[in-house]
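To the wet lab folks,

You asked to see what we're planning to order before we commit. Fair enough. Below is the target structure as tokens, and below that is the sequence we designed to fit it. If anything looks off to you, flag it before the synthesis order goes out.
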């Protein structure tokens, strides 16, 4: 009796730790989207789909003292961990290719927060899923002394195979989307070149390097919210056409605004949606942002 009391206590403590992590993650993500106005990307939604049910499931499992709880929770937390790790890697590295936008909506590479230079929202999700996974394994092994209640030996193999398939599918999809968006962009560039040649037969247009770099970076970092032609996308980003802000402010002021982003509560915010600091790409240098500004001012329809 005495001997089994201590691991049992560890087990139920672990369940409460998991409960706390799930609720913190859920309320934190709701705070970011509902209070701060950060728009969740597609990968964020997958993580929410896996995290939110845990807030209820773990509470239910604790109330029912159900030893099946880890079986139920682990597939959610392991899948969530795989997705948030992948999400963090595409934000912070280029190992999955150049940062590309998700198929639609906010780019998955958008960095809304960047505390200490490495803590982003998917990083926080990764930690929460990890805490839940470790807590569930701890609860399972300390709470269940009976041999028959141990996890079946083959169970983790299935989980690993499922996760590997999911990650492979995600990476493959991302690579296909990148290929498609490159293919789609090609004819437009070719057409523009022809047009220039026709309109300026004597003096072929010589686009400045800044304008070209700006166009490329704009397509990568800003177009998903502000539209490929700068006309804006409802609920994501506003139009640059006839923008009073752009006419009233010089390049340095515009650059400062882009660096800082714009909270939904800011006096000059008209849409109630947040613009992420640096457009969600803290890796862009001042020079690169300046090139984007050149493109916004000279390459987009005003
Ligand atoms: C996740 C979506 C998103 C991304 C990505 C994004 N923006 Fe924005 N941007 C916004 C929103 C939302 C606003 C503010 C709308 C408002 O004030 O109502 C805004 C506002 C702006 C403004 C002020 C325009 C005005 O007329 O007030 C500029 C300039 C700007 N963005 C530039 C950029 C640049 C450059 C990038 C790429 C590096 C970028 N944005 C990426 C969403 C985004």
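Sequence we intend to order:
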């Amino acid at each position: 009796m005495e001997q089994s009391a201590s691991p049992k206590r560890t087990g139920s403590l672990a369940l409460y730790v998991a409960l706390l992590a799930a609720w913190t993650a859920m309320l934190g993500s709701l705070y970011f989207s509902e209070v701060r106005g950060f728009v969740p990307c597609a990968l964020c939604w997958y993580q929410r789909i896996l995290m939110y049910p845990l807030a209820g499931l773990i509470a239910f499992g604790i109330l029912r003292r159900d030893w099946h709880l880890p079986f139920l929770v682990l597939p959610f937390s392991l899948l969530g961990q795989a997705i948030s790790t992948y999400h963090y890697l595409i934000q912070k590295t280029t190992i999955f290719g150049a940062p590309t936008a998700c198929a639609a909506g906010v780019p998955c590479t958008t960095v809304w927060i960047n505390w200490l230079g490495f803590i982003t929202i998917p990083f926080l999700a990764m930690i929460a899923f990890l805490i839940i996974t470790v807590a569930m394994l701890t609860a399972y092994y300390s709470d269940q002394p009976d041999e028959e209640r141990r996890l079946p030996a083959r169970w983790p193999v299935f989980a690993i195979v499922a996760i590997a398939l999911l990650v492979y599918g995600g990476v493959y999809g991302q690579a296909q989307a990148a290929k498609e968006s490159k293919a789609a962009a090609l004819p437009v560039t070719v057409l523009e070149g022809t047009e220039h040649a026709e309109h300026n037969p004597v003096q072929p247009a010589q686009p400045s390097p800044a304008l070209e770099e700006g166009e490329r970076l704009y397509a990568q970092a800003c177009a998903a919210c502000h539209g490929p032609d700068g006309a804006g996308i409802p609920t994501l980003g506003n139009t640059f056409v006839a923008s009073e802000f752009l006419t009233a402010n010089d390049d340095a002021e515009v650059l400062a605004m882009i660096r800082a982003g714009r909270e939904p509560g800011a006096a000059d915010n008209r849409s109630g949606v947040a613009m992420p600091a640096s457009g969600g790409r803290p890796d862009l240098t001042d020079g690169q942002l300046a090139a984007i500004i050149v493109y916004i001012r000279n390459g987009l329809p005003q």
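Structural context that might help your review: The longest helix spans residues 155-199. The pocket of heme C is lined by residues 39, 106-107, 110, 221-222, 224-226, 236-238, 243, 245-246, 254, 257-258, 262, 269-271, 273, 275-276, 279-281, 292 (CB under 6 Å).

Thanks,
Computational group
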